[in-house]
Design a protein that fits this description.
With 381 residues, the chain is α/β, with parallel strands linked by helices. It contains 14 helices and twelve strands. The strands form two sheets. An eight-stranded mixed sheet has the order 6-7-8-3-9-10-12-11, with helices on both faces. Strand 9 and strand 10 form a beta hairpin. Helix 2 runs parallel beside helix 4, helix 6 crosses helix 7 and helix 9 runs parallel beside helix 10. The protein is globular and about 65 Å long.
Length: 381
């Protein structure tokens, strides 16, 4: 028998928020249908911390949306790696493919209309693209946590905060109701919610925006994941709360050794939080590198434009902010040219005729997609 939503509702303020009879279980054990699923199950039972050279290896990942107007190439042949415990930033304008990349990594792209059309995502040695939908449930929550952009639409308004945090602990860690509740109280305290046990019976609407985002972080960390995907976790929060949330993510990442992929359009946040940064434009990674190298010596005009658009304290008061002229391209009609060329002040004929590849610039860790800075043919100083 499965508990209904009515069984899980309690009066606001009730400490017995997540109590279900011990005979009530969340979804039954997942049947292992694939070789990769059996490998994943063996890893989950193994206390060994690492099973591969890299925590995450993404190779030629492409995700498309099939609409009545045509096929949208939202993520196009994206490749990158992530070390254990590393923080990687995905930055770029709205609509460049950051969030769809994160959804693709967890196979949460809505289908239809979306579909992951090609590529490999190797997580701790397991190719998650070969897992069945049921087997993916072993990974989400247990090994990969997700902080969504808007907590008010991500949290269930009919269930208490305590239940929503404790749910994944019962499901993935096999904890009893009491132990899961204790875990939820511990996490609420860790993310800075005052009177954590008293707030277990409260509903999402009884929390402020910053507090709801803290609850989302607690849910994402409930099972001590190896990877935390943070999709613009400070959107719509004031500057003071933004700083608190970012510091919380940083400190918890350090404490638990959790790798983080931080999605943001704020380059200042990326500079302060990340070890490496991937700059995305029109569904592609156009520059990647160690954060200090990329910010001090960007080698792609789009990255220059993003940096130049930031306000500076040393500029004359009243001066206008610089912008990147033009609009991002229509991702239904993509050609074999540089996608930034129509907006680039340095473009030449080759930019409009042939697509540049992501190649080395200052070293093997700094790559850019630009003919104008390509070694051996560069015309941009």
């Amino acid at each position: 028998m499965t508990a209904t939503d009515d069984d899980r509702r309690v009066d606001p303020g009730s400490p017995a928020v997540a109590e279900l009879p011990d005979t009530e279980k969340l979804p039954e054990a997942v049947s292992l249908e694939t070789e990769e699923g059996r490998r994943l199950a063996a890893q989950l039972a193994d206390e060994k911390a690492r099973h591969a050279r890299k925590l995450l290896e993404v190779r030629d990942l492409s995700t498309q949306f099939f609409t009545k107007d045509g096929v949208v190439h939202a993520v196009d042949r994206v490749s990158f790696e992530l070390d254990y415990g590393e923080t990687l930033g995905l930055v770029g304008e709205s609509g460049c493919g950051k969030s769809v990349t994160a959804l693709s990594l967890t196979r949460l792209v809505p289908d239809p209309p979306g579909k992951i059309t090609s590529g490999e995502v190797i997580f701790d040695g397991v190719d998650i693209m070969k897992l069945s939908s049921e087997e993916m449930r072993l990974l989400r929550g247990k090994r990969i946590g997700f902080i969504f952009q808007d907590p008010m639409t991500s949290l269930n308004p009919t269930l208490t905060i305590g239940f929503q945090i404790a749910e994944s602990a019962r499901l993935h860690l096999g904890l009893s109701n009491r132990a899961a509740n204790d875990r939820a109280v511990e996490l609420l305290s860790k993310v800075g919610i005052p009177r954590a046990r008293d707030r277990m019976g409260d509903y999402p609407h009884q929390f402020s925006g910053g507090m709801r985002q803290r609850v989302m972080i607690a849910i994402a960390l409930a099972c001590d994941p190896m990877l935390l995907l943070a999709d613009e976790p400070t959107t719509a929060l004031d500057v003071t709360i933004q700083a608190q949330i970012l510091e919380l993510i940083r400190s918890l990442s350090d404490e638990f050794g959790t790798a983080v992929i931080l999605i943001t359009h704020d380059l200042g946040i990326a500079a302060g939080m990340c070890h490496r940064v991937n700059v995305m434009y029109a569904g592609q990674i156009v520059e990647t590198g160690v954060v200090d190298d990329l910010f001090e010596n960007p080698r792609m005009p789009y990255a220059w434009g993003l940096l130049d658009s930031l306000p500076r304290l040393d500029e004359e008061r009243g001066s206008r902010l610089r912008t990147i002229e033009g609009m991002p391209p229509d991702l239904i009609h993509v050609g074999d040219d540089c996608r930034f060329a129509p907006r680039c002040p340095y473009s030449r004929d080759i930019c409009l005729e042939d697509e540049p590849q992501l190649t080395e610039r200052e070293g093997p860790d700094h790559l850019a997609r630009c003919w104008g800075t390509e070694p051996g043919r560069a015309w941009i100083e």
